[in-house]
Amino acid sequence: MSPTAQAAGNAATLDGATKQRTKYRVRDLNFYYGKHHALKSIDIDVYEHEITALIGPSGCGKSSFLRTLNRMNEVLADTRCTGSLLLDDEEIYDRRVDVVELRKRVGMVFQKPNPFPKSIYENIAYGPRIHGVRRRTELDEIVERSLRGAALWEEVKDVLKKSAFDLSGGQQQRLCIARALAVEPEVVLMDEPCSALDPISTFRIEELMEELKQRYTIVLVTHNMYQASRVSQRTGFFLMGELVEVGATEDLFERPKDKRTDDYIRGRFG
Amino acid sequence: MRMMRRLYQLETEVATQPSLVAGAPKVASLRHTFEQQLAALQDDILRMGSYVSQMLVVAMQAVSKQDPRMSFHVIEMDDTADFMDLQIEHTCLRLLALQQPMSRDLRVIGTAFKVITDLERIGDYAVDIAKTARRLASEPYLIPLTDLDRMATATEWMVRECIHAYVEHDLDLVTQVVARDDEVDDCYDRLFTDLLDRMERDRSLIRQGTWILGIARFLERIADHAVNVAERVHYVETGELKQLHQDRPNNDHRP
Questions:
Q1: pLDDT at A11 (0 to 100)
Q2: Contacting B residues, span 62-101, partner chain A, CB-CB under 8 Å
């Protein structure tokens, strides 16, 4: 990260009356797909109960970065990660870390809604069940709480036995969010959660994010910088594997420090 | 009407030159049309700025030459200034809604939005001065206009140069405009005390003195609006919103 980006990050931690606790502290993170150096010395802090948005053109590394946050990149062959990535002051790339436990703490929602080919109820109950919840009443409770948390309960409470595929795209995405919430994560990673949705469903998910941030920490990757400006408190701009600039969202969109950020958000790339 | 024509021209220019939209050269911006519209917005601000600046100059000539025709001319000009204000506001709203500007573009448009209000007010004060000038036209001046002339020169300069600073992105000029407001304020304080003295000594001066005091007050307000414009230029160029001119504590006695 450039010195200006560093300064922007620091300024954001200092100003504002509600100083947030740091959830992730990332320092000098490098990531490689084979020989390809996909993330170059990333430094960023993610604060608790905030939405941190990551923007940048396709292939800039924002999704790769998101996947390092719950070690999702490891499922790909021939990848390598160096540097420090602390979650609550714990190194998540430490050998002693249980990846299943990590991914329970750090849930993920993807671009295209990907419900399991099961009933609505089973989609939610699946996670808690493999984590050892067996009692029916307890599962019922979790299903209701998760669906309420994802603002879907009122729409599906009478059809829980129906297949998840009967839901609309927007409802399926909220179901996937509910599924992520069912195991009571601390962080929710969202990779372009609205890019396959119509504007109404998009606004509903954005509203939902606003509510979710009271209880969780959210990291959002989005192509849509207007979405970033609408929902996030902090925004980071990625370009060619580099985190060019990170800071308070309003500062980044009103007075970016780096010329490359300025060119990108003003649509001035030639 | 000129404004309408300008807008219309712009739209036809864009429509009839597809190369501007589709086949723009590789190195140029992806938002060529938008950039042109922003440039046109700056042109419009410049046009409105020089227009109200002209209103002020003519209004002060109406005062010094005691010529009611000039007063009438300024009052007539006000309709056009108001129309420009509305047109530019409309352009700003359209650009905000359709282009969702960011960064400097956002600051340019947000600033245009604010600046036209200041310019429109300057035009209104010029009209107030012109109306006062009509009342002053009937008898010869019994009070020397030296301080008022000095105030007018400084204020006219501030109005002209704050617009220049906006168009030329000139931060040095911003500093100079802000600094010159002190001169206007000093002049006003001096003129105020002096006129009060004269009117106390000679009651027959009260009528004329009060009108002149009114004009001085209008000039002082105009200068403050020029400072507002200068502050906006500072914001466009630096991204920092702040009051550049500090009110001095010794101004308390003023009306």
A1: 42
A2: 100-101
Cβ count near A120 (within 10 Å): 27
Residue B21: its pLDDT value, please? 34
- Total structural domains within chain B: 1
ipTM surpassing 0.90: no
CATH number of the domain at B160, please: 1.20.58.220
CATH number at A3-115+186-265:
3.40.50.300
Q: Which residue in chain A is spatially nearest to B24 when comparing CA positions?
A: A270
pLDDT of residue B63: 97
Q: Does B28 touch chain A (CB under 8 A)?
A: yes
pLDDT at A6 over 60: no
Contact A5, A237 (CB under 8 A): no
**Please, how many CA atoms are within 13 Å of residue A206, restricted to the half-sphere of its CB?**
19
Distance from C-alpha of A113 to C-alpha of A169, rounded to nearest angstrom: 7
Residues B229, B119 contacting (CB under 8 angstroms): yes
Counting one residue from A and one from B, how many pairs have CB atoms under 8 Å apart?
40
CA–CA min distance A69, chain B (Å): 29
Range of the domain at B37: 2-22+29-251
Query: Residue A19: what pLDDT?
Result: 67
A252 Cα to chain B: minimum distance (Å): 8
Predicted pLDDT at B248: 60
- Tell me the pLDDT of chain A averaged across its residues: 89
